[in-house]
Amino acid sequence: MSSEILVAEDLGDGIQRLTMNRPDRLNAMNHPVAEGMLAHFEGLRRNTAVRVVILRGAGRAFSSGADLKAGGTPDALRDGPNGDWVLRDLMKAMRACPQPLIATVRGPAAGGGFAVALACDVILCSESAAFHSAFINIGLSGAELGVSWRLQRMMGLSKAREILLAGRPLPAAAALEAGLISEVTSEAELDDKGLALAKDMARAAPDALRITKRTLDASLEAATYDAAMEIEERGQMLMIRGRTAPVSRQAG
Question: What pTM was computed for the model?
Fold first, then answer.
């Protein structure tokens, strides 16, 4: 593993793996990590060569959240050198990323690390994984960094509110039962499972992959079934016109 705090690898077929690489600190997020991830995900918005992204943590943890030793409090990470709210901006950049994001989680995903996992489209985890909001246990609101919005839609109101209000960790098996994650696998198989899923996604036409992700996100905002179908119809028409446009120009 490289000594860099963030390691981006090209795995072929348009698949990129991004590793948070501070295993000695359980991949806790300090300013360099958070700002580096923000810049990376903002750069992916216009990078058509990358089609799917796998996000993981080096060593035995996904991420333990804000680095309290470096920043003093989680709020210290909010204010970068230019006064940016870097963690908030990171979550927004991840959700705006056109590529599907797959989190492969082993060990703790706590606090800001939990929020990063939830910002991904699909979560796979090993048997050692544990998800923990943690904010309320250190005197902060349990609703932070988009976690309240994502969690209530992924798990339902009662379970999501139990986790955020009681500050209870959620082990891998319970996360699977609650619908938070897609699969629990062994430590040895986790990276291979993540890559296999990424390859399945990357087989789709690039535009189809991006439009599908955009449609899924937009449908979460739809107030009615009919509104969701309208969103789907617009995405499908974009795809149909894109496929037929070259033929039409030749015929004209």
Answer: 0.88
